[in-house]
Specification:
CATH topology of the largest domain: Elongation Factor Tu (Ef-tu), domain 3
Radius of gyration: 43 Å
Distance between the termini: 90 Å
CATH superfamily of the largest domain: Efflux pump adaptor protein, beta barrel domain
Order of helices and strands: HHHEEEEHHEEEEEEHEEEEHH
Helix content: 25-40%
Number of domains: 2
Shape: rod-shaped
Strand content: 25-35%
CATH architecture of the largest domain: Beta Barrel
Length: about 300
């Protein structure tokens, strides 16, 4: 039997033609392949980003400005002010008068005692053996020294060389003993930032770390300084108030044990929008210290910290 008897003529003719190979059957559409490779690229990018990027952790807390070398000068006596002899921004020398109080009574009494002293001194010189005159001179001399002290109290003088930061009084104002009259700043004034952060961060805190602060009233105006000191002990709310004193004890609100962090600020003031603002004790704000920096993979898988180290 011949092939012609087994197959149709059309099949034999097609078999004798040149061989043509067909392509494989494609069951995966284009959008599936496109999505797959995009996901692979995205995963690789995320892995690189997690390996390169570091996330910083900060110890944050309330902050207080303290100006060292600035003293409030109180009045040693009460009375009505006669003259204010200085003004804000004026430089003064030690012993220079700042404020004078009316002293008519004290001056008149001193003049009376001085006249009586001179009279008894004349008697003593003309009659050296006059015992009564000698005893009277001793009593008058003591009274005269007391009157001199009372008169000198009516003039408040600068206790040191410095700059007048504030004048708290004006002419003809009645002043009580112990009231603040003038605020003086010494030549070597130092401005310090006191930051209180939760005690849990104490092991990670040390001098030399960067500290960023933002003062209340100067939003988004950040200042970067360096930590100069860290307390070894933790302070509770009561200890914080005792440390700050009666005047500033309630300025910072704290809850729980805190660590005291200190940093020095430039003493030429705070610069903002082309202006310079002076620091004052009692200014408050927020501060934060960078305590550690962790790799992105450590944040995603905390167990890696034990392998790579936790900085």
């Amino acid at each position: 039997m011949t092939p012609q008897d087994l197959f149709r003529q059309e099949a034999l003719e097609h078999y004798n033609l040149s061989e043509e190979k067909g392509s494989l059957l494609k069951l995966t559409p284009f959008w599936v392949r496109f999505t797959y490779w995009n996901l692979v690229a995205l995963a690789l990018t995320a892995a690189v980003v997690l390996a390169v990027v570091h996330v910083h952790e900060y110890a944050t807390g309330p902050l207080l400005i303290q100006v060292a070398g600035v003293e409030d000068i109180p009045s040693t006596a009460g009375g009505r002010i006669s003259r204010v002899l200085v003004k804000r921004g004026q430089r003064v020398r030690a012993g220079e008068p700042l404020v004078e109080l009316y002293a008519r009574g004290e001056t008149a009494e001193r003049e009376r005692v001085a006249q009586e002293y001179r009279a008894q001194l004349a008697v003593r010189l003309t009659d050296p053996l006059n015992t009564a005159a000698r005893q009277s001179l001793g009593s008058l001399r003591a009274q005269l020294e007391l009157n001199d002290a009372l008169v000198s109290e009516r003039t408040l003088v600068a206790p040191f060389d410095g700059l007048v930061r504030e004048v708290r009084v004006h002419d003809n104002q009645y002043l009580g003993a112990g009231e603040v009259v003038v605020t003086l700043a010494k030549e070597d004034t130092e401005v310090k930032a006191l930051l209180l952060v939760p005690g849990q961060y104490r092991p990670r805190l040390k001098p030399g770390q960067p500290l960023r602060l933002e003062l209340q009233g100067f939003a988004y105006l950040y200042q970067d300084v360096t930590v100069t000191a860290v307390s070894d002990e933790l302070l509770g709310p009561t200890e914080v108030r005792r440390y700050l004193g009666a005047a500033l004890g309630d300025v910072l609100k704290v809850d729980g044990p805190m660590v005291r962090v200190e940093a020095r600020l430039p003493d030429d003031g705070l610069r903002a929008h082309g202006n310079t603002f002076r620091y004052y004790t009692g200014m408050v704000g927020i501060g934060r210290v960078q305590v550690r920096s962790r790799n992105g993979w450590m944040l995603l898988i905390p167990a890696l910290s034990a392998l790579w180290g936790d900085t």
